[in-house]
Amino acid sequence: MPDVIPADSVGIVTPQIAQFDTPLALSCGQTLSSYQLIYETYGTLNKEASNAILICHALSGDHHAAGYHAMTDTKPGWWDTAIGPGKAIDTNQFYVVALNNLGGCCGSTGPTSINPATGQRWEASFPIVTVEDWVESQARLADLLGIQTFAAIVGGSLGGMQVLEWSVRFPSRLKSAVIVASAPKLSTQNIAFNEVARQSIRRDPDFFDGNYIENNSVPTNGLGLARMLGHITYLSDDAMGAKFGRQMRHDSYQYNYGIEFEVESYLRYQGEAFTKRFDANTYMLMTKALDYFDPASQTGGDLSAVLSRAQCEFLLVSFTTDWRFSPERSEEIVNALVKAGKQVSYAKIEAAEGHDAFLFPIPRYMSVLNTFLTRVANRLTTEVK
Amino acid sequence: MRSDLEIIDEWVQPNIRVLDLACGPGELLHHLIKNKQVNGYGLEIGHDDLNTCIEKGIPVLEQNIDEGLQNFDDQSFDLVLMTHALQQFRRPDLLIDEMLRIGKECIITFPNFGHWRSRLHLALKGRMPVSDFLPYNWYDTPNIHFFTFQDFERLCREKNIKILRWAAVDGQLKDHWWIRSMPNLFSETAIFHISR
């Protein structure tokens, strides 16, 4: 809880809801007749509407990227370390838009929302949404906010995939793209991890084939287990070792299945905490969106061919100990962009935190991001003059 | 009297694809992008240099050249550049092969260790030369290979590499007639434009 709002915070923010009644045709073949997106904005949109930055969230993110909802909040938004006045994504310069994606569970239309056709919650019947669907819906939100062209679109991990999709789907609607700790598609191992996560949810007897709310139930065991697995892949071996080592709960081995090592306690806590804030159907949808993303499939697997459509400048960032989306995965995008002759810069940041590093205010990471975006901001002012 | 950058600039055609290995703060690349409208990329691992390039809007990739350049396709660049860096890599001969695989042509500049002052320093003092231009001690220098203008020419001959043209400049990176007449003795920086 902040006693006073820090000077470099965007302060108290209030989410807003945008209602869309134009049907949205989804990749899966179904259509959403109407839907809503919850979003927050920080900073001020200039009169040319040229200084907007869109933040795309990752697997478990939401629209609350920065600031506080109330003075009683224990924590600020999920990327508060990067967004604020004077921070890497400087709200003195930019108008920042962050939304909760379709299929989410934090206020945008998703499995926990009411299906207008039935008057019941969607639950298991909510259609599977893809990165392409998200980008389409984000473009409609931009229309609503009067933003024709974003100065930058920024995202880490699954968020980075949305940025990549933006660059080829709406090439003229962004000046620059910042893709952090991401990949042009999942590896077999990534998909395998996602499948274990989904199976742990689906095999939970409290899951009820996805209609657990209707059955007054919550698949906490399955969702918790999925999160525990996910958490291991977000951290590096070194980071876990440094944090917990073989630290034990008791002075000696208990020879039972209770908690012996602190890392077990940590994972159980992370799993359980997650089930209190996240919906299992949304989690499954997000993992499917990850699995399906593969823009190069449109051009016979040739990533540089699909990226040749892009018109924006790119900044790619990876982290040395990230093994979920390793530097090599970012470099696939970099190499394809170079092959296509696109403007791209790439930084590989030394970091111990693994995939999670993209959420940490690592000084060199923040400096690279700020340097790139400062140039974006400076060019806005020169273009206006 | 022209500087090394001016000489290179004259040799570069407009609107080509350029890869600058170990581009530093991107001075040359910046110049070529602005004046020759090249589609240019730099490779660099120095954090400050990377930031400077990003600040100036020069496409720069963090990549350790000693770990290989396999990510670049054969003949995918019109020109591969390397200024004042060849002497810092593990295997300059293999690196030149790689540069000529990736680029149709290459321009390489390097400090000429055959310069009369280096010779005199070693001959009279019996110690490895330390100069304004090569201001390092033998144990902390990033320059792990020392070679001369003639050594480079000879390597090109052995590898059947064509020398399209060359230039030689002094410590102020200017050329003079006397350097041109005896480059191995008088040049502090040698500039070679080569191809297969």
Layout of SSEs?
The complex is a heterodimer of chains A (385) and B (196).
Chain A: E1 16-20, E2 24-25, E3 31-32, E4 35-42, E5 52-56, E6 83-84, E7 89-90, E8 95-99, H1 131-144, E9 152-156, H2 158-169, E10 176-180, H3 188-202, H4 220-234, H5 237-244, H6 262-277, H7 280-292, H8 303-307, E11 313-319, H9 327-339, E12 344-349, H10 363-384
Parallel strand pairs in A: 5-8, 5-9, 6-7, 9-10, 10-11, 11-12
Antiparallel strand pairs in A: 1-4, 2-3, 4-8
Chain B: H1 4-11, E1 17-21, H2 27-36, E2 39-44, H3 47-56, E3 60-62, E4 77-83, H4 92-102, E5 103-111, H5 116-125, H6 149-158, E6 162-169, H7 177-181, H8 183-186, E7 189-195
Parallel strand pairs in B: 1-2, 1-4, 2-3, 4-5
Antiparallel strand pairs in B: 5-7, 6-7
Keywords:
heterodimer; A: 385 residues; alpha/beta; Rossmann fold; Rna Polymerase Sigma Factor, Chain: A; 8-stranded mixed β-sheet; two-stranded antiparallel ribbon; 10 helices; 35% helix; B: 196 residues; 8 helices; globular
Structural class by helix and strand composition of chain A: alpha/beta
CATH architecture group name of the largest domain in chain A: 3-Layer(aba) Sandwich
CATH class of the largest domain in chain A: Alpha Beta
Tell me the count of domains of chain B.
1
- Measured by DSSP, the beta-strand proportion of chain A falls in 5-15%
Radius of gyration of chain B: 16 Å
Widest sheet of chain B: strand order? 3-2-1-4-5-7-6
CATH topology of chain B: Rossmann fold
Describe the structure.
The complex is a heterodimer of chains A (385) and B (196). Chain A is of the alpha/beta class and 385 residues long. Chain A folds into 2 domains: 16-185 and 296-383, Rossmann fold; 190-288, Rna Polymerase Sigma Factor, Chain: A. Chain A has 10 helices and 12 strands. Chain A has helices at residues 131-144, 158-169, 188-202, 220-234, 237-244, 262-277, 280-292, 303-307, 327-339, 363-384; strands at residues 16-20, 24-25, 31-32, 35-42, 52-56, 83-84, 89-90, 95-99, 152-156, 176-180, 313-319, 344-349. In chain A, the strands form 3 sheets. Chain A has an 8-stranded mixed β-sheet with strand order 1-4-8-5-9-10-11-12, with helices on both faces. Chain A has a two-stranded antiparallel sheet with strand order 2-3. In chain A, strands 6-7 form a two-stranded parallel ribbon. The model of chain A has no long low-confidence stretch (mean pLDDT 96). Chain B has 196 residues and is of the alpha/beta class. Chain B has one domain (3-115, 146-195): Vaccinia Virus protein VP39 (Rossmann fold, 3-Layer(aba) Sandwich). Helix content of chain B is 35%, strand content 23%. Chain B has helices at residues 4-11, 27-36, 47-56, 92-102, 116-125, 149-158, 177-181, 183-186, and strands at 17-21, 39-44, 60-62, 77-83, 103-111, 162-169, 189-195. Chain B is globular, with a radius of gyration of 16 Å. The model of chain B has no long low-confidence stretch (mean pLDDT 93). The A-B interface holds A 313, 315, 331, 334-335, 338-339, 341, 343-348, 364, 367-368, 371-372, 374-375 and B 17, 39, 41, 47, 50-51, 53-63, 71-73, 76. Chain B: This is Methionine biosynthesis protein MetW. Chain B: Pfam families: MetW. Chain B: InterPro entries: Methionine_synth_MetW, SAM-dependent_MTases_sf.
